[in-house]
């Protein structure tokens, strides 16, 4: 490293570490009268939120939580989760956001692996814990959550056989509202959660206070200069990405720091989400395509005004078909790109001055890209030998990343960590192109790309084509071995109710063949087999589960 | 410190330091077609800017500059200065922004003290260097700047007796446009400059890369949540604060990172500034009150539309009179607060939803405050014994600060550094109140506050009163010893040309006495002596020089 001069420090001078408590300090500075809302059950302003976070810190301290301990949460998206987002890390403890969609065996694995000491659990998830509690090796105490305290305060909370510290709402209300959060090193672990790979046990990623502060700044930097995130001073924010999933993509930290009105929807039911969205005048959300698809296709969506709603899509690819359907309802939809290991944001779509003037149809090309590379993130393309490839918008390679908020490894898994960081770059496992305009376009997952007759075909490209055929609700494309071509694409489709019986696999093939005939697409893009299915298998975070499709549906797909 | 768990790092993992080069990397990512303009002499887009910064890095490297060396700049506000803002620190070298308004002896002192190795100097300042060059102990090479290269390329540049490396524009144009900036520690010194205190030699403050990155984030954080800085994606930025003064308050780094159109005006002549402002459609500037006063009182100001212009005032107090005059011209004027030692921003006025609805007259109260405490800054009030005082909006104490961008000391001056950081808090030397709404109101400088009859009277309060009397252009109030009252306020005033002969010191006193009679102000606010003067002494950065007023004008003021 270059031999620079370091700043001399006066012995009494103070240089603060970058801690989540510095974000939390902003919660009451600007518009503390704004509200944080949980469904139609609870609402408070930021002054109360500030108090409750300090009360929760006292509750946890009383329960024996110390700096370095892990506190796990199993809850629907709620104000309580947001309180834990701040109280736990500000104590110097580690927040483990448990993925409640994992199997009980996987949840057990992650809880023992993360060494959870105290668990805050919604009564809906008590049965899971009852089933595994004999095998939990580190948990000492449980705090139970119930929504009944808001609706039926007299009702009894689910009976448990746990070492219960008490009920969340009562503990918080009874606690001392004074708590001064101490300083500690900015490289302290603030959060951990688990990603489910294609093989083996879930892998734990972890983020430091500094990394989460820097990620929040990245989101901030998107606003005034780039307007990639269509956020504003008066925005009302409602995440529709589970808070256990990469801290709700980091936006709850930002929204709290900026004193936005925040709305937490609990669990996701389309009509309830739409009702809440309209009632609370929500202007900004983020979700995976599946959720947007569900909302767009809800009968209610067509009867209400969604033109004030901005949605950032991530998690898996936004197809042109879905983007168009959303835009036609007036929803301002764009896409971002990230992963659990990257906290998660690495790029967000930003239409520049010229692109903003394009027609909706022309804008689809940009809106469905992975986005422009985020501030302070470096993204490069790498070939199999570790060489960098040109950013010409055409050359395809594996996307590798660097930046101030990339996980520094998988917890207690040196082998997977070294593989993730091979050559000093974080390997995303995605195949992509990067344009000279810093736009990233994901071609496919490294493991999902289909090699057919010497050509690399992106399964996402074919899914995009299929999404634009009228009547197709969803699609998934996978490759299977082929003696002649090496590999060939195959597709499963979900057909919209109105189109049942009107469309056939053959009619879909003909539609694609017509595009081949007029030179719009290459002939190897037409799947060998097309099968209609009632549902497409998804992972616990709502992504298309191609691993399961390849294993469990193989015979069905390949049958004639 | 609390015993947290630190993030484990995989050996191959990469966690980037916070460097100015990460801000610079943004310059070409979003709207690289936007322009950087120097008067009517030079304009380029960000792609060219990116190239020229790398060329300048090669020029400096060729001139022998290495990481840890100091490069000084003496220039008017220009695109070249902005290029040095990035090229010098990105090399790991230290940018010394010389205050060209200091006396040659002071400039000599700062250049030797900072150990300048290479000096980039505009030909206008060559005479200063010629006068002191025999005493410069560390300078090895000079790069000369001339505006003639844009207007009279054939004209000769001023003759010098220096070790000239060459002329800036030619050196840059001839240099290799490829330069990859290396990584180094984020605590490396990036910049240094000198503050002139009331006694002794100028004192050098210094800022690290990390500190300047964090300060830029602070400015960013003001946008979307708080809208304190009325900036937008499409803004056109023109600083009217010298770039040698606390890096132009940090905004050039922000504007570059956000790809704003930037306009650099060279030297400050009211008509030229207004012309440039209108021609380039400038929407955001910052300056000291003196400059705004000069522009507001320019005959041109009343003939043009200034309603798109947003101005942030700092450096010294924005009086109600000046704020009103600016608002009446349609200028959106607010105030911020900071100092050289704090990089500089510590607070900026932010009108909340209710305050925005107030009348202009009612808004004056807020717009002329020092502002709401900036994101990530801690400000407290301290008494003489080091005790914290309440934030009730009434209790007066010395303002002390902490935050991620406070200078860690004065360069090679341990004694002054320890005093600055007494008790682990940076002492601002300002007396203030802080409200429960996080609003700071500066009462006075610690050394300028007037103690009269047991009351503390703020000289700024009296100046504010005087500024609102029709015909008063500027005022300064100082305290002089008084046998009966301990100390009494005295005022000097500059009267607007149209009011010469119409106002007298007695009529001013009567106006104030009328306010006493109706109970609007306390009687001890009426200055003992009021004297009309042609001009108010100012420091090199445009602040009222009360030290000189107290020493040089004492007899004149106290005379009957």
Report the average pLDDT across residues of chain A.
Answer: 92
Total beta strand runs of chain A = 26
Identify the strand order in the major beta sheet of chain A: 12-13-14-15-16-21-20-19-17-18
Number of helices of chain A: 20
Helical/strand content category of chain A: alpha/beta
CATH topology of the largest domain in chain A: Rossmann fold
* The CATH top-level class label of the largest domain in chain A: Alpha Beta
Going by CATH, the homologous superfamily of the largest domain in chain A would be ANL, N-terminal domain
Strand content of chain A is 15-25%
Secondary-structure blueprint of this entry?
The structure is a homodimer of 560-residue chains.
Chain A (H helix, E strand, L loop, with lengths): L19 H5 L10 E4 L3 E4 H17 L7 E5 L4 H12 L3 E4 L6 H10 L2 E7 L3 H7 L8 E5 L2 H4 L12 E4 H7 L14 E7 L7 E6 H13 L14 E2 L8 H4 L1 H7 L3 E4 L5 H10 L4 E4 L1 H8 L13 E4 L6 H9 L3 E7 L6 E4 L4 H4 L3 H8 L3 E3 L4 E5 L5 E2 L7 E6 L11 H7 L5 E9 L4 E7 L4 E3 L2 E3 L1 H9 L4 E11 L3 E10 L9 H13 L12 E3 L13 H7 L1 H5 L2
What attributes does this structure have?
560 residues, alpha/beta, homodimer, GMP Synthetase, Chain A, domain 3, 7-stranded mixed beta sheet, 3 domains, Rossmann fold, O-succinylbenzoate--CoA ligase (chains A, B), EC 6.2.1.26 (chains A, B)
């Amino acid at each position: 490293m270059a031999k620079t001069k370091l700043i001399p420090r006066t012995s009494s001078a103070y240089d603060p570490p970058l801690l989540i408590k510095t974000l939390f300090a902003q919660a009451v500075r600007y518009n503390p009268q704004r509200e944080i809302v949980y469904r139609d059950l609870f609402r408070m302003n930021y002054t109360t939120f500030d108090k409750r976070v300090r009360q929760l810190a006292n509750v946890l301290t009383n329960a024996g939580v110390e700096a370095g301990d892990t506190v796990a949460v199993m809850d629907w998206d709620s104000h309580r989760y947001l309180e834990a987002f701040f109280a736990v890390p500000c104590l110097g403890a580690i927040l483990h956001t448990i993925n409640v969609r994992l199997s009980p065996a996987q949840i057990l694995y992650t809880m023992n692996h993360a060494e959870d000491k105290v668990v805050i659990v919604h009564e809906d998830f008590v049965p899971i814990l009852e089933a595994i509690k004999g095998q939990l090796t580190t948990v000492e105490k449980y705090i139970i959550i119930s929504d009944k305290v808001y609706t039926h305060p007299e009702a009894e909370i689910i009976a448990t056989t746990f070492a219960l510290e008490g009920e969340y709402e009562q503990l918080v209300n009874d606690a001392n509202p004074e708590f001064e959060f101490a300083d500690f090193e900015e490289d302290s672990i603030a959060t951990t959660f688990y990603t489910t790979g294609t093989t083996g046990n879930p892998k734990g990623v972890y983020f430091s206070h500094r990394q989460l502060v820097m990620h929040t700044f990245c989101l901030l930097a998107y606003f005034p200069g780039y307007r990639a995130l269509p956020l504003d001073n008066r925005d009302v924010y409602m995440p529709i990405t589970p808070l256990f999933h990469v801290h709700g993509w980091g936006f709850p930290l930002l929204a709290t720091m900026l004193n936005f009105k925040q709305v937490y929807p609990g669990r996701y039911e389309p009509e309830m989400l739409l009702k809440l969205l309209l009632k609370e005048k929500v202007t900004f959300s983020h979700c995976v395509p599946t959720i947007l698809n569900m909302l767009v296709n809800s009968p209610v969506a067509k009867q209400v005004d969604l033109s004030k709603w901005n949605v950032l899509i991530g998690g898996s690819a936004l197809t042109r078909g879905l983007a168009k359907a959303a835009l036609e309802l007036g929803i301002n939809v764009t896409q971002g790109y990230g992963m659990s290991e990257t906290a998660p944001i690495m790029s967000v779509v930003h239409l520049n001055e010229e692109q903003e003037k394009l027609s909706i149809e022309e804008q689809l090309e940009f809106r469905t890209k992975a986005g422009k590379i985020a501030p302070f993130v470096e993204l490069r393309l790498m070939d199999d030998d570790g060489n960098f490839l040109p950013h010409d918008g055409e050359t395809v390679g594996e996307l590798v990343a660097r930046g101030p908020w990339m996980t520094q490894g998988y917890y207690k898994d040196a082998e997977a960590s070294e593989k993730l960081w091979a050559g000093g770059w974080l390997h995303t496992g995605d195949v992509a192109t990067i344009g000279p305009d810093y736009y990233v376009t994901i071609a496919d997952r490294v493991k999902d790309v289909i090699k057919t007759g010497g050509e690399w075909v992106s399964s996402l490209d074919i899914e995009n084509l299929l999404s634009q055929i009228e009547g197709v609700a969803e699609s998934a494309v996978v490759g299977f071995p082929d003696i002649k071509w090496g590999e060939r694409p195959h597709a499963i489709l979900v057909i919209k109710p109105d189109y049942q019986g009107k469309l056939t696999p053959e009619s879909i093939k003909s539609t694609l063949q017509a595009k081949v005939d007029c030179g719009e697409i290459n002939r190897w893009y037409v799947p060998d087999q097309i099968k209609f299915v009632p549902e497409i298998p998804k992972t616990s975070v709502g992504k298309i589960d191609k691993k399961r499709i390849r294993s469990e549906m193989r015979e069905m797909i390949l049958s004639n």
